[in-house]
Amino acid sequence: MTAQEERLCGLLLQEHFGEVVEKVGTHLLCNGNLNLRALVHETKLPLDLVKKSVCVLVQQGMCTFCTGRRGPGAPVEYQICGEKVLHMLRYPRYIYTAKSLYGDTGELIVEEILQRGQMTMSNTVSTVADRLTHNMPEGQCMDYSEVVTAFSRLVETHFLQRSAPMTPAGSSTSGGADSNPPSVTEPIQPETNPDCYKLPYINISGKGKRTRSDDGDAEQSTAKKAKTDNSESGDEGIYWQVNFERFHLHFRDQAIISAVASKLDQTSSEIVRTMLRMSEVTTPANAAFTQALSANEIFRSLPSTYNIARPILDQYLTLLVDDPVCLHIYSQIHATSFLMTVCVHLCSLVGLCHYLAMLCVRFGSRSARIFRLLLRKRHLEQKQVEDFAMVPAKEAKDMLYKLLSENLVQLQEIPKTPDHAPSRTFYLYTVNQLPTARLLLQHCYKTVGNLIERRLYETKENKQTSEKSMIITKIGISCSTTGRSPLSYTKVCVWSTCPKTLQVFVCSLHLVKLMSVNNCIDNCNRVLFSHGSSNARACRLK
Predict the structure, then answer these.
(1) In DSSP terms, which residues pair with 411 in a beta bridge?
(2) Kind and range of the H or E element at 230?
(3) β-strand pairing of 293-294 with 336-340
(4) Which residue from 370, 373, 374, 368 is spatially nearest to 356, judged by alpha carbons?
(5) What are the 10-residue block averages of pLDDT along the chain, 542 residues in total?
(6) CATH 1.10.10.10 spans which residues of the chain?
(7) CB of 29 closer than 8 Å to CB of 43
(8) Is 246 within 8 Å of 157 (Cβ atoms)?
(9) For residue 263, is it left (φ>0), alpha (ψ between -120 and 50) or beta?
(10) Which CATH class is domain 246-342?
C-alpha cells in the first residue's frame, strides 16, 4: 500500500475502534505478516490489549491469520487487508443503499452486521426487531417474520453472504502443529462455499421487545438474551457478513445508468437498468461483460409501467448497439443476443467525466480540452496540440508542461538517429489512463485523510460544549415527556450562554459540511478505482 493509503487506514481505525487498534492495525499494514509476540514487542503494548485488538480486526473481517513461515508448529501470523479497512469509508453509503432498497428493516440489518462484523441470522433478527419496536408507538411491535423476510431478500440479492470458516473442518484447536490453517496469501473466499447464499432453517418466532432507556444494563441483558435465543434457534455457527463487492457492483450499475441517461435519454437508461438487473446476481463483480441477453428476454423483463412497445425496444437496442461505448452485438444461430461491456467501456466513460471535472477545477477548461484531445488522438506533438485544441502556442506549451510536471501526461521520445539529437527527435505527448487514475486516486485518499483529521480536531475542540448541549436537550425532552414544571429546564438553560450555543451550531455545521464533502470524494474514489481496475483488466486481455 502507498503512504496515503496507510495514513487513511490508520485514521479510519482510530475513528472507529480507538488508538490501540489503530496502532496495531497500522503496524501490521507497514510490516506485513507478524506473530503475536512480535506485535507485542514492536508496538510496546500489553499482551492483553494486543490480543483484544487482533480479535476486533478478525471479527470485522479485516485481519486473517495463517501458520508461520517456518511451517507447522510455528507461531500463528496475522495480516491485515488494507482494502477492507478502506471499506469503512462507504459504511454510510452501504446503509443508505439498503434503506432505499429494503426500507428501515434492511437498513438496520446492514447497520448491525457492519457494526459487529459478522452475526448469526437469529441474533440479527431479534436485535433489529427490538430496535424497530423501540421506535414504534406504544402498543405496536415488530414481528420477527417481517425481519426474516427482509433478511432473506438481502441474501437472495447477494447483499449478505455467509462468512467463510476461519479454519478447515476437522482441525483441532489443541494440536497446532498438526493442523494447517489456511494461507494468508490465498485467503478463503466466501464464494467458494457452496452454501454461501443458502438460508438456514431457524426456529424463531415472536415479536420485538421494548427496552427502557433508563436501564443501565440494557445492552448486557440484550447480549445475554441473544446468546440464549441463538442456542435454541438452529443456526449455531452460521455467521453472515456484508458482501461489499455486491454493493460496489450496485454502485457501478447506478453510475452506468446515469451515464447512459445523460448521453442518450431516460428510456435508454431504463432499458440498460433492466439488462443490468437481469444479470446482477449471476455476473461476477470483476467481469468485463454481462450475460448474453436476447431481445425477447429483455422485452419480457421490462416493467409494465414503462409502456415500451417491441418495435420501440428494437429501435433503442439498435441505437445502443450503434453507440461504440454501450453494447456489443453477436449474431447467433437462432436469435440475436446483446452483450453489454459494463466494465471496460462504460466505466471508462464515467471515469473520463471525473478526469475532466477534476482537471477543469484545478487547471482550467483549456487544460481539460488538451487532456481530452490526447485521450482521443493517443499521440500528438506540441504543434499538433496547438492546432487541434485551438490554443495559442505559448499557452499550450505552459499547459502541457504543467500537466507533465503533475504526471498527468507523459512525453515519449522517438529519435530518427541514434544520437538522440533534439532536432532529429519526435517528442510526442500521450496519456496513460492507468497511472493517471492511480495518481488521482492517491490525491483523493490524501484529501479524505485531511478531512478526517479536521473532523477529529473539530470534535475534540468542541467536545465539552457539545456534551453540555446534549445534556440540556435530554433534560428538555425529559421535562416535556414527564410533564414536569419547565422551571427546572429554565434553570438548566441558564448554563448555556448565547456564544456557546452559537459555537455548538457552527461546529455542527462544519461537521455536516465535512461529512458531505467526504461522501462526494468517496464517490469519486469509487469511480476512479473501478475505472483503474477495468483498464487493468483490459490491458491484461490485450
Answers:
(1) 429
(2) helix 218-233
(3) antiparallel
(4) 368
(5) 86 90 91 88 91 91 81 81 89 91 92 91 89 82 88 91 63 41 49 73 77 52 49 76 89 82 83 84 72 81 84 84 59 46 56 75 85 86 88 88 87 83 84 80 86 83 71 66 58 58 70 75 72 58 50
(6) 3-80, 246-342
(7) no
(8) yes
(9) alpha
(10) mainly alpha
Q: Which three cell numbers stand for residue 104?
A: 428501515
- Indicate the pTM of the whole model: 0.79
pLDDT at 230 (0 to 100): 46
One-letter amino acid of 474: K
264 φ, ψ to 5°?
Answer: -115, -95
Q: How many residues does the chain have?
A: 542
Beta-bridge mates of residue 241? 161
The fold for domain 3-80 equals: Arc Repressor Mutant, subunit A (1.10.10)
CA distance linking residue 328 with residue 173, whole number of Å: 53
pLDDT at 154: 92
Distance in angstroms (rounded) separating the CA atoms of residues 542 and 540 = 5
Return the C-alpha cell found at 403: 500537466
CB 246 within 8 A of CB 159: yes
pLDDT at residue 171, as a whole number: 43
The residues, ordered by sequence, that sit 6+ positions from 419 with a Cβ below 8 Å of its Cβ are none
Q: Cα dist. 474→9, 137, 470, 504 in Å?
A: 35, 19, 6, 16
Query: What is the tens place of the pLDDT at every residue in 274-326?
Result: 888 887 777 776 666 777 777 888 888 888 888 888 888 888 888 877 765 55
Based on the number of CB atoms within 10 Å of its own CB, is 120 exposed (0-12), middle (13-18) or buried (19 or more)?
buried
Return the residue matching grid coordinates 453489454: 340
Hey, what's the torsion of the CAs at 341, 346, 348, 350, to 10 degrees?
A: -160
**Residue 537 vs residues 254, 349, 465: alpha-carbon distances, Å:** 21, 16, 52
Contacts of 337 (CB under 8 A, 6+ apart): 292, 293, 294, 329, 330
Give the Cα separation of 61 and 77 in Å (integer).
15
Best CA proximity match to 94, nearest among 248, 273, 279, 240? 248
